[in-house]
């Protein structure tokens, strides 16, 4: 190759490099490492587009003129140290354009060595990453906001769960010859399940377990409202009916559950004109009243199931009605019998459900278990439900355990059965035992 053609080729290559450097959207700068303060000796058109500075105005200057009040001094120090150590470095640094507008610069600086290995130049490559950086900042702000909101919601949920738990019985009524026990495991902090046992009058205990469809806030709000409705406060709940005065004369004889008013006086007491008199509402009527008050919500589709019963402490007769709740189980002489009805409408499903009242004559040694569907509908890894039969077998095996132990065993059965080892639905159980003499 002759000299002219070599020179032509070399010129053509330089021209190509120039055009390539001018065309790239990245800024490219070269500084002289041997001169004091490493001045810029080259900047491409991309740098002009990026920063708004004209090349002729910045040649001979150190590139720090791009920095400003928002530039992080730590990043600047990292660059300084890398240059001193003659190391390559890549940083993201806030810079300012000629018009003062800030932008985010992804800056890579690479040392260039001469033939004897001395660093003669540094090449800087600048890219505008403002859009990505702003998006990241916005995301970070949103994440922080979300974390704050989540923390606030959690605090509120915990507070609400506390209020809900306050409706659970603190202790079971102490009644001679009858043992009560319950267990309550919400699957989330707020539960749709609820239960209670309480004195209605000196001879009668009322009790219920209920399960609002779904979980979380709306289920818990409805279950708390229902607790309020089922509070044994005459005049303020559906558990008592106001007694018409003209019935005072022939009270008691016809219906045992009309014998007492809830203040413990015999209902034939009529002396006090101010005394309102109440009679216990029969269980089926309680459910029918609830059905009137709580029709299914067409928007949320929320409804609930409930068993409500009244235990007569004198002869251990148990009258109850069931609205779509799992059947209560009677454990008697080593046999577990689910008590009808098995199929009845949950509360609010139909306008006139006609709930039926059932009566059990409990005997010494009998146990009654109430449970929510979270117990039998727990599914294992093969999507198989625990089922009623497995529960009944389990209960039969608990003959030698206390009522409380028996409930604890059922909960651990549900936990073991569940695929996740955790309780996935609200689980509540209530049990009573008529003690053997
Ligand atoms: C730089 N520097 C630099 N700084 C910056 O904020 N934006 C930039 O685009 C560049 N570009 C750049 C290119 C090249 C080739 C070099 C060698 C350096 C860094 C800047 O010039 C200086 O080195 C740092 O500010 C650290 O040194 P001081 O300011 O602490 O002395």
Strand order of the largest sheet: 2-1-5-4-3
As residue ranges, the low-confidence spans are 248-275
CATH architecture of the largest domain: 4-Layer Sandwich
Q: Provide the helix percentage.
A: 25-40%
Provide the CATH superfamily of the largest domain: PPM-type phosphatase domain
Provide an overview of this structure.
31% of the residues lie in helices and 26% in strands. It is an alpha+beta fold and 437 residues long. The chain folds into four domains: 126 residues, PAS domain (Beta-Lactamase, 2-Layer Sandwich); 31 residues; 217 residues, PPM-type phosphatase domain (Phosphatase 2c, domain 1, 4-Layer Sandwich); 41 residues, no CATH class. Strands 2-1-5-4-3 form a five-stranded antiparallel β-sheet, with helices on both faces. Strands 6-17-16-13-14 form a five-stranded antiparallel β-sheet. The chain has a five-stranded antiparallel β-sheet with strand order 7-8-11-12-15. Helix 5 packs parallel to helix 6. The longest helix is centred in the middle third of the chain and has 37 residues. About 6% of the residues have low confidence. The chain binds ligand FNR.
């Amino acid at each position: 190759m002759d000299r002219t053609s070599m020179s032509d080729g070399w010129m053509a290559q330089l021209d190509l490099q120039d055009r390539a450097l001018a065309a790239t959207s990245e800024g490219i700068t070269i500084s002289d490492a041997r001169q004091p303060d490493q001045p810029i000796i080259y900047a491409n058109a991309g740098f002009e587009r990026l920063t708004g500075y004209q090349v002729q105005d910045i040649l001979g200057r150190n590139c720090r003129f791009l920095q400003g009040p928002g530039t992080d001094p730590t990043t600047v120090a990292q660059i300084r140290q890398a240059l001193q150590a003659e190391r390559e470095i890549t940083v993201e640094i806030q810079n300012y354009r000629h018009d003062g507008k800030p932008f985010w610069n992804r800056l890579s600086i690479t040392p260039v060595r001469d033939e004897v290995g001395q660093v003669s130049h540094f090449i800087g490559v600048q890219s505008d990453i403002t859009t990505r950086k702003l998006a990241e900042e916005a995301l970070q702000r949103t994440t922080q906001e979300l974390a704050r909101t989540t923390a606030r919601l959690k605090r509120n949920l915990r507070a609400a769960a506390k209020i809900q738990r306050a409706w659970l019985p603190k202790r079971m009524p102490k009644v001679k010859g009858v043992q009560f026990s319950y267990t309550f495991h919400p699957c989330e902090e707020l539960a749709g399940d609820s239960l209670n046992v309480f004195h209605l009058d000196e001879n009668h205990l009322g009790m219920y377990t209920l399960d609002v469809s779904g979980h979380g806030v709306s289920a818990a709000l409805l279950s708390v409202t229902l607790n309020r409705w089922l509070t044994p406060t005459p005049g303020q709940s559906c558990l008592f009916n106001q007694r018409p005065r003209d019935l005072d004369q022939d009270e008691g004889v016809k219906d045992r559950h009309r014998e007492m008013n809830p203040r413990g006086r015999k209902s034939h007491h009529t002396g006090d004109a101010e005394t309102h008199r109440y009679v216990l509402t029969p269980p089926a009527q309680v459910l029918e009243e609830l059905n009137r008050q709580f029709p299914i919500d067409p928007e949320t589709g929320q409804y609930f199931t409930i068993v409500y019963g009244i235990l007569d402490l004198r002869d251990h007769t148990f009258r109850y009605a069931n609205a779509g709740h799992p059947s209560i189980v009677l454990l008697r002489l080593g046999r577990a019998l689910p008590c009808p009805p098995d199929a009845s409408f949950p509360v609010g499903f139909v306008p006139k459900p006609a709930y039926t009242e059932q009566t059990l004559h409990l005997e010494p040694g009998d146990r009654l278990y109430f449970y929510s569907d979270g117990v039998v509908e727990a599914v294992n890894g093969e999507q198989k439900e625990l089922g009623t039969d497995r529960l009944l077998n389990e209960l039969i095996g608990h003959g030698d355990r206390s009522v409380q132990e028996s409930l604890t065993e059922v909960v651990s059965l549900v936990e073991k059965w569940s695929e996740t080892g955790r309780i996935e639905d609200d689980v509540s159980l209530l049990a009573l035992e008529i003690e053997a003499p």
